[in-house]
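Our collaborator T.R. sent over the components below with a one-line note: 'Predict the complex.' Nothing else. No constraints on interfaces, no templates requested, no preferences about which chain binds where. So this is a plain run: every listed entity goes in together, and whatever single assembly comes back becomes the starting point for the next discussion.
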Amino acid sequence: MSDSAFLGMPAFPAAARAATGDAQLRHNLRKATHTIRDKRASVVGELDDWPVLRAAGAAIKDRTLRHLDTYLVRLEESVRAAGGTVHWAADAAEANRIVTGLVQATGETEVVKVKSMATQEIELNEALAEAGITAFETDLAELIVQLGDDHPSHILVPAIHRNRAEIREIFLRTMRDWGVPAPDDLTDDPRALAEAARVHLREKFLRAKVGVSGANFAVADTGTMVVLESEGNGRMCLTLPETLISVVGIEKIVPTWSDLEVFLQLLPRSSTGERMNPYTSTWTGVTPGDGPQDFHLVLLDNGRTDVLADTVGRQALRCIRCSACLNICPVYERAGGHAYGSVYPGPIGAILTPQLRGTSSELDASLPYASSLCGACYEVCPVAIDIPEVLVHLREQVVDGPGHRAEKAAMAAAGWVLDDEKRLGAAQRAASGARGLVPHTLPGPGSAWTDTRDVPEIPAESFRQWWRRRNKGRDKGGAE
Amino acid sequence: MRVALFVTCLNDTLFPRTGRAVVRLLERLGHEVVFPEAQTCCGQMHYNTGYRREAQKLAVRFVRTFGDADAVLAPSGSCAAMVRDNYRRLGAPGSRLAEEAAALAPRVYDLSELLVDVLGVTDVGAYFPHRVTYHPTCHGLRLLKLGDRPTRLLSAVRGLDLAELDGAAECCGFGGTFAMKNEAVSAAMGSDKARHVAATGAEVLCAVDNSCLMHIGGTLDRSRSGVAVLHLAEILASTEQEPARL
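Returned assembly:
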């Protein structure tokens, strides 16, 4: 996975500290995440069989991943039989090379894009730009991010960190550089903003000869790609161009259409809080005289087989990118998406990014710790990914790696004291003896606590001292 | 009933009054409390921070110390959850630790579970004439699934006025070493929780975990809110003759 766009970003705690100080950002995030989280809770609560659906979703994904080799070959055969071409990409560089080559072969220098996490992950837009090809994002939120020369900060709502006043400013300032400008009298009314985007994008749709997408699901039996979206802009890109290139992670496979049925219930309710998804597009290879006549599927690994090899971490590959874990997460709500330094923010990003990229950078090694392990993410996950379990598993990998010498020494010392009740008792007596000496504010690492919180008073006697004293008194027949 | 008290290292060292309250409460209800002196720590801090080997050693010690007990009481939701939910991950499948931990897990209880489910009591005869709000800690809520057990116990306390807490299910931001490693986010979560607590007008914030209370209480004290924090055991142990110290 390329890390160029996020290269040099600070580790999570530093980036999160800056975000918690940004009152506007915290207000935007709180309002948006609480709105979606409440909608989700309401529509999930309507279904009596939600726990069963959730278990089915997890089971289908697990079974598919266990036999992924078989299903991938089946998918390839089905797509070919339907008139499409299949390409295999081991990493981001190979995927970008394939897509760039395919666009160049058409002679075009522009593509329109359906919102896609896989192409964000491999930084396809940047790779295309290097080859002189302009990629136009057509999802409204992705458009806001692209026009603002910004990074996405949420999986479902990439511009969640922007409010409508900021969006108006971005449209007025930058739309003219990309195509049809925004009207000079643009207000920050959501309808006016949507209309400006609509006029701007309509020109792109009608002109585009090449579309690029990802897919939410790929049905192995029939070779069908499935995209779920809310705006209809995706469907424009999937139907109007002559050439369609879909970059799809190898974990997106479901074996059959009946498996798909489970996810078409789980995903909308978990992501946008809707009972049914507004625009669900499916396409199978090429249909003569209807839609793109040249279809390419690029199957992307980019670290996924390594994740699959980890028996604890592999559950992250069940993820259907719904964002329910982001919207419920108290850490995400306060840190914002950019602090995670990846296109996958929030709890799922904290377990996915370190698995896809490794934990060699300071940022990636800090991600497994970007959680209080409160478990709210696991509770809302529609495919039952035990995110806290994977976070702890990844922390173990970080601890087994180099660095963190002071912490390792402290943890070893604590482990030594706690492994013997006599040592623990001696440490408690020492603490009680020094109880008058603990200052209100602690120096060094202790200041991380006392900057915002008072320290508890150390008691004169530990529980075990009290217990012993009490039992001695009883043995002598005395009172407590 | 004979109850083995796992007081937890944090309560033992910093909050012995919670342990003493548990002893007083259970003896008042006619039960015997034993304190196996070989106990130290469940290993939660090491496990949650990624120090698996240290956690394993402490898990082995715990299982050895409490293996024979009929009922183990841990007056800390997160420590009870550590033993019940995470010990099975510390031993390799089929290992002695995994088997012994699995056998012990169903006999490990949080205080509200022990009282309501095992001892079958919700009115423990307590008296506490104060306005109280209850924070259902993450481990209590999502791992132990304590549900309304703690608030049923509180509602039965004479004189107690229970105030509902806004955003109760949201984490307070303690999270063990998270409070130090990500202190800015932890403090932001803590101050939001403290704000909700103060808005209830309660004199006392109650929970089943002193680690969360240490964090929220430290935040409340820093802002001079005047709200005290008390473990559930201390409120339930409180009587007219021996009132809990605020």
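Summary for T.R.: The first strand of chain B starts at residue 2 and ends at 5.
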